[in-house]
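FORM 7B: Structural annotation worksheet

SECTION A. Query
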Amino acid sequence: MAGKTPIAAKSSALIAMIADEDTVTGFLLAGVGNVDLRRKTNYLIVDSKTTVKAIEDTFKEFTSREDIAIVLISQYVANMIRFLVDSYNKPIPAILEIPSKEHPYDPAHDSVLSRVKYLFSAESVASGRR
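SECTION B. Predicted structure
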């Protein structure tokens, strides 16, 4: 397809996490965790003491790293940095909003779902169907 940038294929990539302690712990137990040689992790545990600035910086770091393919972020954390999540438009790493124990999933705030709805509505308008 003309004008599209190809997605680089790598032999391995990481899943990054920005979420509460219980969610991150569950994914760490499943083997998602990684610590590199510089002692950088692929996760951020968000609690009441975590600043919005720290969340923003971590989100920017994870979305700029070459070794991360997916960023899982709790939806309530994504709502704290909604302007960054909504303005992110690269295919890799993919941003996926997930529910947490204390905060149920709200599809009205999911950036991926809203983009899909927009694409399908634009597609139906373009094809003449409603």
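SECTION C. Observations
The helical segments are 21-29, 52-64, 75-80, 82-87, 111-126. The first strand starts at residue 14 and ends at 19.

SECTION D. Sign-off
Analyst initials: ____
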